[in-house]
Amino acid sequence: MNETQGQYFYHPLENIEEVDVFYEAVEREHLTKAISEERPYTYWTIEYYDQENGIRGGGGLGVLAGDTRRIAEKIGVPLVLVTPFYPSELHQKYKDGKIINEHRNVDYHDFGFRFIDKVNIKCGENISQLDVIEKKFKNTRILAITEPNFGELYSGASGSDHRLYQEVALGFGGYTALKLVGLKPAIIQLNEVATFFSALARLDELVRNGMDFYEAVVYTRKHTLYTNHTLVQAAEAEFSYEQFERYVFPNLKSLAVKKWISDKFSEGKIKLSSVTIEIAELRSGVSKLHSRVANYKDIAGNRVKFKAITNGIDLERWVMPEIMDFYLEADILTPDYFPAPNYLEQIDELTADIIRIYKAKGREVLNEILEHYPDQNGKILKFSENDFIFDFRRRLVDYKRPDLPFRDSMRLRNILEKHDAHYILAGRVHTGDNEMSEKLNRILETISKDEYLSTHVHYLPDYDEELAYGLSVGSNSAINIPIVGLEACGTSWMKDVANFNILISTHDGGVADGSINAYLNVSGADEDEELNMLYQRMEEAMMIWESDFDLEYVIKQELATFLPIISGSRMLKDYLDYLFPM
Ligand SMILES: *Cc1c(COP(=O)(O)O)cnc(C)c1O
């Protein structure tokens, strides 16, 4: 508590739910207006993965944001995506047993952004001047803020001053940017808590413009959706009151809002999730399982409920165009990329011949892409149509278990040898994750010591969007083995299923939205049992590939189960149904 607080004129807002009931009547009448060009759906994200537009993300969170904007464009939803444009991006190389980080500068002028104006953000004694830039695409646009010292995505520790600065800049700067282009948000979707300050900026503006404080809180809550991607609140970094005094409070105009947020500190610390829960009445998780198990408490100590809206992907972005044409012509997908009404029957059009033709085409695409992605030895890989390829490609983090398949390297070798198959491991290690770097080194050492493995297991360090695409169209079987309960959704596996790959997976994240029999499931009472089953599944996958009958059966089964889940159009529709119920 700080001593100047007594002078603020405010009413403590202890029980926000009561206020809720009070304003409900008012609510119904004037608050929820449908989205329009002037009142768009606004989507806020600290991470946006869209290399075509010069913004490189870190993983699934950013890919989802990129897909959401594209889907909105496709199905005609007015959407503004607000995000930082990072002037520097991280690439990784592997050299002499070490991961080497490479920082490349990026200029927004090279990507078709238009400069709009500058906005000021206060940081303690200083003022940071941000460029507001925009790029329009039909009914959607990217509105970005940036400045030369903005830094990289996720640079610094998660509770650091620099992160807080980036988050405050996105929230307050982005909110001002929205005003600059003459827009009011119909809804604020917070893609994780790093975007909290946009909702705070809105609350501040409403109060500043004369709305009663309680009404402003209710209004903001009714129009803010918090999308959670993380399982445990405990893992989240905290900020201190002192950090807020420097970065947050100077950007607030209303004393009541300042007081409101001050009251949310506990022992001088705050977790953004706790205030995000307070400011967003609408809350969603990214798969059924995740929404059930995400363990979050509000300030009163009550468990928070999350509405399950499983992630989907923009099929146009991730599916090989030839396969996309097939889905459309066979009436499996509608022109808006929803599963067609009779998609289950139509999937029967698929034959092993078709699958093999498209996988051969995908292999050519993969080979072209691989020309720009040297392996751990600096070698360019090229595969024949007949090579069987397993791939494990994702951020290299512990819970996804990139090391699991290498625990019994002799067995892995025997499996690959039987069919002369290849195994591609692609993924970046998070800066500072020394444990994972060491694990990776051990994997690579194991590989290099074995003559066979060294020619059949390949590590590709600079994993990104293009490589993700190449591997989903060009490999045969994808391995997705997070520790059950720890994957929020995952979207890599969706790209694999949509491109006719045989999916080997644990029953976790979005995969667990479907039946356990819909794919090659890996499970077991402990990790040894899981590993044993993983190896069995790998052998099975290679056998399935050799049999037309089995291949057709397995791919149809995957599509029948997962196509409605994978469809990003379905995802956006689920969000709209949740936000604007009839
Ligand atoms: C699809 C994609 C992801 C998502 O990965 P998951 O591990 O499935 O969450 C991450 N990074 C890139 C580059 C992707 O294309």
3D architecture notes:
The protein is of the alpha/beta class and 582 residues long. The chain folds into two domains: 34-311, Glycogen Phosphorylase B (Rossmann fold, 3-Layer(aba) Sandwich); 315-566, Rossmann fold. It has helices spanning 16-30, 60-75, 161-180, 196-208, 213-222, 241-247, 255-262, 272-279, 288-293, 315-318, 321-329, 343-346, 352-370, 409-419, 434-449, 451-456, 465-474, 492-498, 527-546, 548-566, 568-579; strands at residues 41-45, 79-84, 88-95, 98-105, 114-123, 126-137, 140-146, 187-191, 224-228, 239-240, 269-270, 282-285, 307-308, 389-393, 422-426, 457-460, 477-480, 502-505, 520-521. The strands form four sheets. The chain has a nine-stranded mixed beta sheet with strand order 5-6-7-2-1-8-9-12-13, sandwiched between helices. A six-stranded parallel beta sheet has the order 16-15-14-17-18-19, sandwiched between helices. The chain is globular and about 70 Å long. The relative contact order is 0.11. Pyridoxal-5'-phosphate is lined by residues 59-60, 63, 394-395, 464-465, 468, 490-492, 495.
Topology of this protein?
Layout: H1 16-30, E1 41-45, H2 60-75, E2 79-84, E3 88-95, E4 98-105, E5 114-123, E6 126-137, E7 140-146, H3 161-180, E8 187-191, H4 196-208, H5 213-222, E9 224-228, E10 239-240, H6 241-247, H7 255-262, E11 269-270, H8 272-279, E12 282-285, H9 288-293, E13 307-308, H10 315-318, H11 321-329, H12 343-346, H13 352-370, E14 389-393, H14 409-419, E15 422-426, H15 434-449, H16 451-456, E16 457-460, H17 465-474, E17 477-480, H18 492-498, E18 502-505, E19 520-521, H19 527-546, H20 548-566, H21 568-579
The chain binds pyridoxal-5'-phosphate.
